Structures are given as structure tokens and as C-alpha cells.
Amino acid sequence: MSSVYVDHAATTPMVEPCFAAMSQQMRQLGNPSSLHTDGRATRKTLEDAREVLAKEIGALASEIIFTASGTEANNIALKGLYWAGRKQGRTVVVISAIEHHAILDPAQWLAEHEGAEIIQVPVNNAGVIDLDFLQTIVNERRNEIAVISIMHSNNETGVLQPIAEVVAIADTIPVHSDGVQSFKKTSLSFSDLGLYALTLSAHKVGGPLGIGALVLRRTVEIPALLHGGGQEREIRSGTLNAPAIVGFAAAASSDHYDTAKIENLRDAFIDGVKKTIPDATINGINSLRLPGIVNVTFPGTQSDTLLLLMDGQGVSCSTGSACSAGVHEASHVLISMGHSVESAQSSLRFSFGASSTQADVDYVVSVLPDVIARGRAANLS
Amino acid sequence: MKLIAAMSGGVDSAVAAARAVEAGHDVIGVHLALAANPQKYRSGARGCCTIEDSHDARRAADVIGIPFYIWDMAEEFHDGVVEDFLAEYAAGRTPNPCLRCNEKIKFAAVLDRARAMGFDGVVTGHYARTQISEQGKTLHRAVDHSKDQSYVLSVLTVEQIEGAIFPLGDTTKVDIRKEAQSRGLAVAQKPDSHDICFVPSGDNAGWLRDRLGSEIGPIVDQDGTKIGEHKGAYTYTIGQRKGLGLTVPTADGSPRFVLKIEPVSNTVVVGAREDLAVTLMRGERPVWCGPAVTEIKARGFVQVRAHGAALACSYYFDGNVLVAELDEALLGLATGQAMVIYDGDRVVGSATICETE
User: What ipTM did this prediction achieve?
Assistant: First the structure.
């Protein structure tokens, strides 16, 4: 049986330069905070990596704060910017309705425990945030807003969000963006966008699991979540994970991601879906979006049944939405775009990556008719 | 065969799945999420649908080496089992939710879905056996009578039995635990689940009171004389002696027992022990687990509780209800319980008791 991985938005294979850099660094003794020769040696390669990453994201090296995950970076940014704003009497947190749970849940936590008022910016049917809504909120409550956090692209649909316009509307209000899905997949520059903060994750770009970064303007000071040795501008204490950091930089600076090739694969896949399952719809198809993500609604099915059947055919794909106790929740992203719960729960995400091939696309399309037919039968029973 | 193994996270279903794999079947593990808001952890032997249980099931599937998924059956479970449980109590009957779950969830919703997806059947860790004979595939008691679960499977139709695989029926529980240990399954010593899985506190009466209210009503003797008050008729069971809170003694000082629960008048009727005696029962909505019972009287056994005794009887189907005439009187029998007919160790069929004499 063939085995096809079309879940690159969940995680994607580590690339060779990353393996090479990491395995070399793992043999290097020395805590980067130590002052002796061994410590300095580790610090040197680590700071080299920081500079490489800073260049890739259009930021200063001093603006990179390494974290253990994108989730951690999102938490530091949202909570930190909220607390900083609250000192000035600002207690409103503005996010979009389609944020990843790594923003939604910290926002909810701030509301429940820290006195924040959360305002969610809605999206249209095409999955793009409502800028008029944002403009109105900013006009009305400019002095109350502590932070605006809008993702750069959505992890379920791949739809890009107009972050430059968000920053323009925000004016002096701090803007954070979750750039985890966008980094290295589409043009993304911290300084060009004028952001206060931006979240990145290594394992989405061919780097290792367990390392992320918060890009934070060098003049911005926010309270820490983790206190200790004072590493990373005293915003994120903890011994730096040097092997993962050099792996992150090596992956981010390698040219393995061919945007045009992946867009072609995606479009070939969409054609195949439309031909084999004519009533399937592609969510966000009329919007600007990432090269690799396709979110499809297959009417009359249930996504968890489809996942099982796809897996049985050797196809690794996803619903893209969160699990609650192992049960897929109806996607809040698709519901925000106007889907019913039922329709949201009949959707799958296929995501292509640097290692994807036309043969992958052909194979997935070839198993679709049988999988969808069985999925529909199971849904009726 | 291509099979779905229903994996609760307990030792039995884990070993059942492992045995099905070993028998050469193509097995996929499925954990049924039955509670809409599951508890994080299991406390002792209660409940079976916590998040911890689903982790245990996943871990067992990984150790066995089979794919694993979670199916959300919370809505089906609530509508088919929990609501039914409440409605039965509200109507003054005593339901068995495990039986209803097998009937409506495990061998209906799950089996139907499995078949539609191209699977041939469902494997469970129930202690029961099936046999192929000239009567087709028939359902039988487990070898380990102390663990036998054929009673709660007696609602399966011939077609459902066709799709059911019970790999544990020939083994004792003690040996299943040993086998789990030797297979490296971490659930080998996990406590058995008892009680009702959707009442995690174990306090059935309290759970019912919260949902059905606790309207005070009379406790009367057989003459209709009020001799006490109750706090919600459905929290009593037929044959119950303790906890009646009666202060008026009987003439001869003999104890009183609950004889009847009348939901419409919210009345509990009590009387003497001998008034509990039942020699005939009638059951509605019969299900045959093999050849149908006819109007010709046959000899066999009837069982009225999950781990109750098998009582010698004559039974027949009058075209409307299943009737069992007991050789010896039985004390205390509630309507709503299942009457399950056995021919030796073969399950003939079952019905829901609607009348007793």
C-alpha cells in the first residue's frame, strides 16, 4: 500500500542541513550562558543562528527570543503585551475569530483570570478578517486596547490575512501576529509589516520539534512567563536549546521550499477533487492563501470517518481543527466562515510541503471516490 | 476479516483486540467517546469514559500495534441510553443501561457504521461466546460464569450476532489479566468497572433525584393505608427492605418490602415478603438471538438480573409477549428488567418484563 503524507501544515520532514547542523551541535559541550571557552563556543554558534534567523524574518538579532514552541511564543506575546497595556489602563484584547487555540485559549484565560475584555474580529465567507469592523473598534476604543493579535495566515484554510492593513489601522496599538504557518511559505518581514511581535515555529519549516521564536521589537518590554536565569532579555529564562536553535536556523535558511512547485501541486489536487467529487467545495478558494493548504468540504460525510478511511488507504491528512478528549470539534474557523456545525464537521485539510510530489496528488485523488462513498454510507447508517 | 475493536481502555477489550489480531484479522481499535463532557480521571471502579480511559485505550492499541481512533457517540449514547434510563425510571420501571448500550450503541450505531465503512464486524471484550451450528451463529454463556455477560448481550438480533466477535468467552478473568501482563499491556491490573458509567459518583438515587426531582409521596400498604412518605418513588427498587423510614410496625413485627412503584400517583406500595413472590412473568419487545420462540411451550431457564441465577422455567411466545412460568417462585421482580431465556448455555432471546404474577 502506498503511504502519502499530506499533513505538512501539522509538521513537515526535517531537512538535511538541519540534521547536519544539529548533530554537530549536539556534540558541542558548553552552556551558552557559561563564561568559559566551552560556553563561549556554544554561545558563538547560537548567536550565529540567531542572526541567520533574524535575517530570514527581517528583524534584528536582538529581537529574536527563542522559546520551546509557537504556543509558548503566542502566550508570551499575548499575555505580556496585555499586562504591559494594563499598566496603562488598557484591558481590551482584540483577536480574530479564526485564531489558533494557542491564541484563543490564552485570550480566554486572560478574560477569566486577568480582567481582560476580548473582542473577536469576524471573518467573511472567504475567510478574511473584517477590516471595517476592526477600524470601528479601534476608532471607538483606541485608548482601551492593550493588544491586537491577528494570525498572518490561517492554519486550517491557508487564507492570508491583511496584516499590513491591520498594523495601519492599529496605529500606535501593539500588534502581534501568529506567523507559524506563513514563515518561509509566503513573503513575511517583521520590519516591513511594522509589527510589535511575531510568532515562529521551527518544525513547520523543516526544523526540529520543540523550538520556536517570538520576534519582539527591541524597545518593547513585557513581563515574563518563565522566571529564572534571565536569558532572552529576561523575557524567557531557561538554558537555551542550542542544537534545536542551530537546526531551526539551518532549516529556515535552506532553499528547499519551492513555492511555485507546491502551488502547482495544490492546484492539481483541487482539480482532481472537483473532477472526482463534484459537490466538494474548497474553503477560502477565492482568497489569497498559502501555497500548500487545501481545505475541502465533502457534503454528507463526517471528517473523523474520512480520516480513518484515508488512513486505511495510507493517506495521512487532517481535519485541521482541534480535538477535545480525542473528539474533533467542529472547526471554529469554518463556522466563522458561515458553515453549519454539520458542514464544518464534513471537512478535511490536505497540506502539501517541500517533499510532496505529483504522485502524492494522484494517489490521494485516486482513493477519494471510494473513501467518500464509504464515508457517506457510514454517515447515513 | 476486517474488524473494529471497541476499546474502552480496560483490560478485557485490550486483550480481545490483541486476540483478534493474533487470529489473523485486520483490526482497527476504536474508543467510543460516550460522555459529552468527560471527566479527566477515573476514580476507582466507577465510570468508563474518562479522558484517562481513552489514553489507556490508545496506549493499548499502540502496544498491540493497530491503528486507533476515537468515535464520538455522545449524542447517540445520551439519546439511546441515558434518556431511556431516565424515562424508564420515571415510568416506575427498573432499566438496565448496559443492555441498552449494547442494543443501541455497540452493536447498532458502531456495527452499522463499521459495516458501511467496509468492515465485517465488531470485536468487544464481553465475556460471552458464539458458536456456529445448524442454527446459525448463536450466542452462549462465557466459560467463566462469574463474569458471564451474555445477559446484557441478549438484545442482539441474529444479524447483530453475525457481526459480533467475543474473543474472551473461553477464558477466565484471572487468566485474561495474566495474559494482559504477558502481552505488556499496562491495563493488566486496572480495576473492573462496576456501577453505571454515566453516574460517576455511584449515587444512582441522587443522580435520579437531580434529574427527575424529588416529589414527596405516600408509602402505602396493600390496603392503601398511608404508613409513611418517600422522597421520589423512582429511588426505590422492588424487593427493597432497608431505608424505607417506616415508623409504623406491622402487626406481627415482620419487615415490609417494596412491592410496587406507581409513578402516576407517585406512590410506593409495601407489603410482606411473601407478597413479592412471582411465578410468572411476561415480557414485551422480544428479541431472538437464534431461532424464534414459538407458542409451543419449551423447557429452559430464565435469568432476570445481569449476574442473577438461572431459574428453571417453561417459556413460550404467545404472538405478543414472551411468557416464562417459573418452577419455583422468585422474590422481588421489577418491570423494566430484562428476562433472558437460556437453553442450556445458549441465549434463546430476551424481552422487557412488563407484567408479573
Answer: 0.86
